[in-house]
Design a protein that fits this description.
The protein has seven helices and seven strands, in the order βββααβαβαααββα. By secondary structure, it is α/β, with parallel strands linked by helices. Helix 1 crosses helix 6.
Length: 181
Amino acid sequence: MQLQTIHGEAVAIPDDDRLVHLQFRRFAGCPVCNLHLRSFVRRHDELAAAGVREVVVFHSSDDELRTYAGDLPFAVVADPDKRLYVEYGVESSPRSLLNPRAWPGIVKAVVVAAVGVALRRQKLPPLKPSGGRLGLPADFLIASDGHTVASKHGTHANDHWSVDEVLHLATDTSRQMARVR
Protein backbone atom coordinates (compact mmCIF):
# COMPACT_ATOMS: atom_id res chain seq x y z
CA MET A 1 0.00 0.00 0.00
CA GLN A 2 1.27 3.48 -0.86
CA LEU A 3 0.22 6.39 1.34
CA GLN A 4 0.93 10.07 0.91
CA THR A 5 2.18 12.18 3.80
CA ILE A 6 0.98 15.67 4.60
CA HIS A 7 4.15 16.93 2.88
CA GLY A 8 3.42 15.05 -0.36
CA GLU A 9 5.94 12.26 0.16
CA ALA A 10 5.12 8.64 -0.64
CA VAL A 11 5.32 6.10 2.17
CA ALA A 12 5.10 2.37 1.49
CA ILE A 13 3.55 -0.09 3.91
CA PRO A 14 5.17 -2.52 4.27
CA ASP A 15 8.66 -1.03 4.12
CA ASP A 16 11.20 -3.34 2.43
CA ASP A 17 13.94 -2.49 4.92
CA ARG A 18 12.26 -1.73 8.25
CA LEU A 19 9.41 -2.58 10.53
CA VAL A 20 6.57 -0.07 10.32
CA HIS A 21 4.91 1.14 13.49
CA LEU A 22 1.57 2.33 12.12
CA GLN A 23 -0.14 4.53 14.70
CA PHE A 24 -3.75 5.66 14.46
CA ARG A 25 -4.29 8.82 16.46
CA ARG A 26 -7.36 10.91 17.01
CA PHE A 27 -7.51 14.43 15.53
CA ALA A 28 -5.01 17.15 14.66
CA GLY A 29 -4.28 19.14 17.80
CA CYS A 30 -5.50 16.41 20.19
CA PRO A 31 -3.65 17.14 23.46
CA VAL A 32 -3.38 13.43 24.38
CA CYS A 33 -2.03 12.55 20.93
CA ASN A 34 0.41 15.47 20.93
CA LEU A 35 1.84 14.52 24.33
CA HIS A 36 2.14 10.89 23.25
CA LEU A 37 3.81 11.73 19.95
CA ARG A 38 6.33 14.03 21.63
CA SER A 39 7.66 10.96 23.48
CA PHE A 40 8.25 9.36 20.06
CA VAL A 41 9.95 12.52 18.80
CA ARG A 42 12.34 12.52 21.78
CA ARG A 43 13.33 8.91 21.07
CA HIS A 44 13.08 8.95 17.28
CA ASP A 45 16.79 8.08 16.85
CA GLU A 46 16.39 5.00 19.09
CA LEU A 47 13.41 3.82 17.07
CA ALA A 48 15.25 4.32 13.77
CA ALA A 49 18.32 2.48 15.13
CA ALA A 50 16.02 -0.43 16.06
CA GLY A 51 14.79 -0.59 12.45
CA VAL A 52 11.39 0.98 13.10
CA ARG A 53 9.75 3.49 10.77
CA GLU A 54 7.01 5.58 12.36
CA VAL A 55 3.87 6.29 10.33
CA VAL A 56 1.12 8.23 12.09
CA VAL A 57 -2.44 8.51 10.76
CA PHE A 58 -4.98 11.11 11.90
CA HIS A 59 -8.61 11.53 10.86
CA SER A 60 -7.91 15.16 9.95
CA SER A 61 -7.10 17.03 6.74
CA ASP A 62 -3.62 17.72 5.38
CA ASP A 63 -4.00 21.43 6.21
CA GLU A 64 -5.05 20.77 9.81
CA LEU A 65 -2.17 18.34 10.27
CA ARG A 66 0.42 20.67 8.80
CA THR A 67 -0.71 23.22 11.43
CA TYR A 68 -0.51 20.85 14.41
CA ALA A 69 1.85 18.03 13.36
CA GLY A 70 3.84 19.43 10.46
CA ASP A 71 7.09 19.43 12.44
CA LEU A 72 7.09 15.74 13.37
CA PRO A 73 10.21 13.89 12.13
CA PHE A 74 8.23 10.95 10.80
CA ALA A 75 5.53 10.27 8.24
CA VAL A 76 2.16 11.86 9.08
CA VAL A 77 -0.82 10.80 6.97
CA ALA A 78 -4.22 12.47 6.74
CA ASP A 79 -7.27 10.21 6.54
CA PRO A 80 -10.24 12.57 6.94
CA ASP A 81 -12.64 10.04 5.43
CA LYS A 82 -11.38 7.36 7.85
CA ARG A 83 -10.79 4.81 5.08
CA LEU A 84 -7.67 3.43 6.77
CA TYR A 85 -9.45 3.45 10.13
CA VAL A 86 -12.14 1.19 8.66
CA GLU A 87 -9.56 -1.03 6.92
CA TYR A 88 -7.69 -1.58 10.21
CA GLY A 89 -10.79 -1.82 12.40
CA VAL A 90 -10.02 1.36 14.36
CA GLU A 91 -13.17 2.68 16.03
CA SER A 92 -14.66 5.74 17.68
CA SER A 93 -16.52 5.52 20.95
CA PRO A 94 -17.65 7.71 23.85
CA ARG A 95 -15.53 5.46 26.07
CA SER A 96 -12.47 7.12 24.55
CA LEU A 97 -13.08 10.01 26.97
CA LEU A 98 -15.44 8.48 29.52
CA ASN A 99 -13.23 5.60 30.62
CA PRO A 100 -11.77 6.60 34.01
CA ARG A 101 -8.42 5.06 33.03
CA ALA A 102 -8.10 7.79 30.38
CA TRP A 103 -8.60 10.68 32.79
CA PRO A 104 -5.08 10.98 34.28
CA GLY A 105 -3.57 11.11 30.79
CA ILE A 106 -6.21 13.56 29.60
CA VAL A 107 -5.60 15.87 32.57
CA LYS A 108 -1.83 15.78 32.08
CA ALA A 109 -2.17 16.40 28.34
CA VAL A 110 -4.59 19.31 28.84
CA VAL A 111 -2.28 20.93 31.42
CA VAL A 112 0.76 20.53 29.14
CA ALA A 113 -1.24 21.92 26.20
CA ALA A 114 -2.52 24.87 28.27
CA VAL A 115 1.01 25.77 29.30
CA GLY A 116 2.18 25.44 25.68
CA VAL A 117 -0.63 27.70 24.47
CA ALA A 118 0.01 30.24 27.26
CA LEU A 119 3.71 30.34 26.37
CA ARG A 120 2.81 30.53 22.65
CA ARG A 121 4.70 27.31 21.91
CA GLN A 122 1.66 25.62 20.44
CA LYS A 123 -1.74 26.40 19.03
CA LEU A 124 -5.01 25.99 20.85
CA PRO A 125 -6.63 22.63 19.92
CA PRO A 126 -9.59 22.95 17.55
CA LEU A 127 -12.99 23.43 19.19
CA LYS A 128 -14.72 21.22 16.64
CA PRO A 129 -12.14 18.80 15.22
CA SER A 130 -12.95 17.12 11.93
CA GLY A 131 -13.89 13.51 12.56
CA GLY A 132 -14.89 14.29 16.14
CA ARG A 133 -13.22 13.82 19.53
CA LEU A 134 -14.24 10.23 20.22
CA GLY A 135 -11.63 8.32 18.24
CA LEU A 136 -9.76 5.44 19.82
CA PRO A 137 -6.03 4.96 19.21
CA ALA A 138 -4.52 1.86 17.64
CA ASP A 139 -1.01 0.58 16.99
CA PHE A 140 0.27 -1.98 14.49
CA LEU A 141 3.77 -3.32 13.97
CA ILE A 142 4.13 -4.46 10.37
CA ALA A 143 7.03 -6.58 9.12
CA SER A 144 8.74 -6.04 5.77
CA ASP A 145 6.86 -9.03 4.33
CA GLY A 146 3.56 -7.26 5.12
CA HIS A 147 2.28 -9.33 8.00
CA THR A 148 1.22 -7.67 11.22
CA VAL A 149 3.47 -9.00 13.98
CA ALA A 150 1.66 -7.19 16.81
CA SER A 151 -1.31 -4.88 17.25
CA LYS A 152 -3.21 -3.00 19.91
CA HIS A 153 -6.65 -1.45 19.66
CA GLY A 154 -6.93 1.11 22.45
CA THR A 155 -9.88 1.02 24.82
CA HIS A 156 -9.66 4.75 25.67
CA ALA A 157 -7.94 7.93 24.43
CA ASN A 158 -4.71 7.30 26.34
CA ASP A 159 -4.40 3.56 25.64
CA HIS A 160 -1.51 3.14 23.21
CA TRP A 161 1.95 1.62 23.02
CA SER A 162 4.81 3.50 24.65
CA VAL A 163 8.17 3.90 22.93
CA ASP A 164 9.54 1.18 25.22
CA GLU A 165 6.80 -1.23 24.15
CA VAL A 166 7.52 -0.57 20.45
CA LEU A 167 11.26 -1.07 20.99
CA HIS A 168 10.61 -4.31 22.89
CA LEU A 169 8.33 -5.62 20.12
CA ALA A 170 10.86 -4.61 17.46
CA THR A 171 13.68 -6.42 19.29
CA ASP A 172 11.57 -9.55 19.70
CA THR A 173 10.56 -9.46 16.04
CA SER A 174 14.17 -9.01 14.89
CA ARG A 175 15.26 -11.99 17.01
CA GLN A 176 12.49 -14.16 15.63
CA MET A 177 13.33 -13.17 12.05
CA ALA A 178 17.03 -13.92 12.66
CA ARG A 179 16.15 -17.43 13.88
CA VAL A 180 14.12 -18.10 10.73
CA ARG A 181 17.01 -17.20 8.42
